[in-house]
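PROTOCOL LOG
Step 1. Enter all chains and additional molecules of the complex.
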Amino acid sequence: MGLGLRWYHFALWAGFILVMALMPEFVSKGTLRTMIFANFLAIFAISWDVLSGRTGYISFGHPFLIGIGAYTTAILTKRFDVPVEYAIPAAIAMTMVGGTIMFLPALRIKGSYFALVSLAFMELIYQLVQVIRPDLTGGTRGMSGIVTLTRGAANGYYLSFSLMIIVALSMWLLMRTRLGTALSAIAMNEESVKGSGLSPTKLKLFAFMTSAFVAGLGGAFYVHYLGSIAPRALFDINFVFTIIVATLIGGASTIVGPMFGAFFLTFLLEYLRPFLPGAERYLIYGAIALLLYMYQPKGLYHIFMSQLDRFKKKGDDD
Amino acid sequence: MTKPLSIRNLVKNFGGLTATDDISFDLNEGQSTGLIGPNGAGKTTIFSQIMGEYRQTSGTIELNGTEISKLSTPARIRLGVSRTYQVPRPFAEFTVLENVRVGLMPDSIWKMITESPNVDREIELALSVGFSESDLRRTPDELSMGDLRKLEMARTMATNPRIMLLDEVFAGLTVGEIDQIAKLIQKMRSENMTFLIVSHDLKALEPLVDDAIAINYGKVIAQGSFASVISDKAVRTSYLGT
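Step 2. Run joint prediction.
Step 3. Record the structure below.
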């Protein structure tokens, strides 16, 4: 399959999983709850990265996909008493349909035009869930009392972490194949991809579907963790920017980067909460993101990798 | 006998401008043809129509007897025709090897995932166009124009074409680089590759082609052996200015 795996890949992943699995033994329940949000943000950031980080089709409307997953399973379980084990796969399938709809404009437009259209998708679903069948969607107030899958911080943590690690590992492996190379090539020069005998349409559709699958999965489990859904919080531009900034801080087009970015950002916002309880916190993370981009636009992952390279070279010289 | 490439009555209108006007020609197996003409004559537009980047207004394009007008660019490349561009279009963040890798990929997502990259073939192609071992990990921002053209050639060759369309293949190159590319083309000619080559550098083009087609204002003004075409009065007036 040509994944180019080395022993240290296995060691790093195993070490990471082990440390994360032991977290509930060492950290408080409050910290665990923060980590649960970080896990879900990592899933959303990876979903965004597979689409926008790779192909360069910047989505400002990712909550459109997350929302389809969340609302589908919420409506099915709460309004129609569908068991969760059927509702979640149905939610993922619906999100993939949403991903196909979002893909259609990408056949004709790219760059900032696509970003604006994707934002319109989010605004569209925000308005729709409030006015179309509020008896099903809960209208502006959303829904509460949705069945939850876990009780207690530790169980919630294990579920969200398991999901995140499955998503991260499978996407990381997938992007190490030639498919990852081809998707990155689209962002660099779509015409040359076509001129190399590859169909950009097919590749982009795959990226949209994969991104939608992950967004739907994350959205569906997130709503069954929270037990409620609020359209104003879900379809919020700050939520979009949190996903994007987490990916960019960590390192777009890397899978591992968005994961670290999500943890960095979630904990940063959490630690700032006592000092800045309001939206001012976003100013601070905006400033940190800005400084980081000025220093290394490719994010924390590349800072780490370049330090590692320097360390290796130094070792070779010695 | 079917021709590798057969173009009949090719017309392309851009609004009120006729970029190619009733162009017809054939390429024979293993034949190398120069396509010459002044700037704006329609040479690159012919390439773009052959590759499906522009759809012709009317006329037909056949590859080995198959009408390809309705096929996408990747489908045409799978049928064995590939091109280079006047301005090289590398993948800016990829190394030389990764650039070649994209050209070697099958147009199947399943195969992209399940099959390993053929690194030996990537290296072989990159070395065959004149890159050295130390160039293979370089990115396009570290390459000269000559190297970028070599990279374009390697990526085009990676698609396994039987017909190669080379657009201004010598533009911006040093004498040494022209010689290198010319040797590569000669080598491929000896392996029976069919070429259609656009170049303003007639001196460099002459030894590489069997015959030539001259166009001006989208029309064929002369066709035949290279010597006869460049000595044609209409060609000399419109192109060479003598």
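Step 4. Note key features.
Residues 28 and 216 of chain A are 30 Å apart (CA to CA).
The radius of gyration of chain A is 20 Å.
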